[in-house]
């Protein structure tokens, strides 16, 4: 199949996160992060897809007491820390124009509140960026991808404390100054809305310490909004010409029926999702969210100057993840049904992945058109992919046609959206190399074009092996999306 809609210079590539990729959690002066405390829970014991919360000091102390016992997959990743040259060479072979990665905040500031950075951590990313530059691959760097220094949780209860704004801005300014000749594309917070699902992972909050969870979460989010805006300001001052964006876990929501109750429920879910980008792209809190705060007894403490900072330092582009769409209903009984991931309602018109995520390529086109209509800024899809079980055949091949079909269908819809006027500047498929799942800490939930020989318990050689999708994506990039 052929398309001719992707612009010259379109940024094709792949996406990862330090906490799922690097490993070496106790090397190079790195401090512990919140994800280093998340242990593996087998699928049959979880009861739902996400298992990553730590809720209390007692739970945290018990995890710390285990030291190196137990199975903490985020600590080992896939050993990118030592194998980054091999992996980047494979990305270059696929023809990547960009590589989305994150800097581990506790690798630069082990506790998060120091004044002086850890030189070993800074030097590691120098080496990674130099290796990418060798192949002409543009880094797209996330400042905070679920990797809050654990010390900031223990001492401050994460982003509930206003002091984290200054700590984060100091960290951001440090890496901007260090890498200003090497990195031109930045993101502030990964999936900033995830705090409403996991207060611990999104904002470093131990919910047992707070009386009103929603109050704590939205206050923490306000601090992140301010920190993000101040990071945008610093980026523009330190690296003139750089682009810095925000990042949202996009949740396209359909009404279950044309009942006005269902339509209203879908609209309200959509507003809650887009609230985060409203603040970061438009620069102010929307009226519907102020009404929500009033109805739910949530009082956001703002300091003088906060609203001015948000308004004057909005992002240059909007990036987002897209994996599935969801269905909303005005009926409380429907919401309780077991169906799609995140919501209880299954869409009968869509297929479902091995992990219960409903596959909806056309929903990506809906999202692209809706978001561009709303914001009129460049868009960047920085996560999209299929988590699946992959089988290594006797001859060593991995025939992941299901992944190719998934990605092809989504790229086709991207092409249609561009044809219809959407300014889309890039696409980085999630988990371009197999890595540890964020939500479940599984290795068996694979997204990559490159197979990594490791199981859920850390067994394996870590050998890298190309899947069938490797050459397919190589041809997509080489043809600038014309040959799918």
What is the topology?
Elements: E1 11-15, H1 18-21, H2 43-46, H3 57-65, H4 73-76, H5 80-94, E2 98-102, H6 105-108, H7 119-134, E3 138-144, H8 150-156, H9 163-179, E4 185-189, H10 199-203, H11 213-238, E5 243-249, E6 252-255, H12 260-282, H13 287-295, H14 306-312, E7 317-321, E8 325-328, H15 332-335, E9 351-352, E10 358-359, H16 361-375, E11 379-383, H17 401-419, E12 424-430, E13 450-452, E14 464-466, H18 468-478
Parallel strand pairs: 1-2, 1-12, 2-3, 3-4, 4-5, 5-7, 6-8, 7-11, 11-12
Antiparallel strand pairs: 9-10, 13-14
Helix pairs in contact: 5-7, 9-11, 11-14, 16-17
Pfam family, one: Glyco_hydro_1
Family: Belongs to the glycosyl hydrolase 1 family.
GO molecular function, one term: beta-glucosidase activity
DSSP E strands, number? 14
The portion of residues assigned to helices is: 40-55%
Alpha-beta content class: alpha/beta
Tell me what the CATH architecture is.
Alpha-Beta Barrel
Characterize the biggest β-sheet: 8 strands, parallel, barrel
Please tell me the overall pLDDT: 94
> Using only CA atoms, what is the Rg?
21 Å
Q: Provide the low-confidence segments as ranges.
A: none
Arrangement of strands in the largest sheet: 1-2-3-4-5-7-11-12
CATH fold group: TIM Barrel
CATH class: Alpha Beta
Total helical segments = 18
């Amino acid at each position: 199949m052929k398309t001719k809609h992707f612009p010259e210079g379109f940024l094709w590539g792949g996406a990862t996160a330090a906490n799922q990729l690097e490993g070496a959690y106790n090397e190079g002066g790195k401090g512990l992060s919140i994800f280093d405390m998340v242990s593996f829970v087998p699928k049959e014991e979880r009861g739902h897809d996400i298992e990553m919360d730590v809720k209390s000091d007692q739970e945290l102390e018990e995890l710390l007491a285990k030291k190196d016992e137990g199975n903490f997959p985020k600590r080992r990743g896939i050993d990118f820390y030592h194998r980054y040259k091999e992996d980047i060479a494979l990305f270059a072979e696929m023809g990547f124009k960009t590589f989305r990665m994150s800097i581990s905040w506790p690798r630069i500031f082990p506790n998060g509140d120091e004044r002086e950075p850890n030189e070993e951590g800074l030097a590691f990313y120098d080496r990674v960026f130099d290796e990418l530059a060798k192949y002409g691959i543009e880094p797209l760097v996330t400042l905070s991808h679920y990797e809050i220094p654990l010390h900031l949780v223990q001492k401050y209860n994460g982003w509930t404390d206003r002091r984290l704004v200054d700590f984060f801005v100091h960290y951001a300014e440090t890496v901007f100054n260090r890498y200003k000749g090497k990195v031109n594309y930045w993101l502030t917070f990964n999936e900033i809305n995830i705090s409403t699902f996991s207060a611990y992972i999104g904002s470093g909050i131990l919910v047992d310490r707070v009386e009103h969870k929603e109050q704590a979460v939205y206050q923490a989010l306000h601090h992140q909004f301010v920190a993000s805006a101040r990071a945008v300001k610093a980026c523009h001052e330190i690296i003139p010409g750089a682009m810095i964006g925000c990042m949202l876990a996009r949740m396209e929501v359909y009404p279950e029926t044309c009942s006005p109750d269902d339509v209203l429920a879908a609209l309200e879910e959509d507003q809650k999702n887009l609230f985060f980008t409203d603040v970061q792209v438009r620069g102010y809190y929307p009226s519907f969210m102020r009404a929500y705060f009033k109805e739910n007894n949530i009082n956001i403490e703002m300091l003088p100057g906060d609203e001015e900072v948000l308004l004057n330092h909005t992002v240059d582009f909007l990036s987002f993840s897209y994996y599935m769409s969801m269905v909303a209903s005005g009926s409380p009984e429907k919401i309780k049904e077991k169906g799609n991931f995140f919501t209880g309602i299954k869409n009968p018109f869509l297929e479902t992945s091995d992990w219960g995520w409903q596959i909806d390529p056309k929903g990506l086109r809906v999202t692209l058109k809706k978001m561009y209509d709303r914001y009129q800024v460049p868009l960047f899809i920085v996560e999209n992919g299929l988590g699946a079980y992959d089988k290594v055949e006797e001859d060593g091949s991995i025939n992941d046609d299901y992944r190719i079909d998934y990605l092809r269908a989504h790229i086709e819809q991207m092409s249609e959206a561009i044809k219809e006027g959407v300014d889309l500047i890039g696409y980085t498929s999630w988990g371009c190399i197999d890595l540890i799942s964020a939500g479940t800490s599984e290795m068996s939930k694979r997204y990559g074009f490159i197979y990594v020989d490791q199981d859920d318990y850390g067994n394996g050689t870590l050998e890298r092996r190309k899947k069938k999708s490797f050459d397919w994506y190589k041809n997509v990039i080489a043809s600038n999306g014309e040959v799918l």
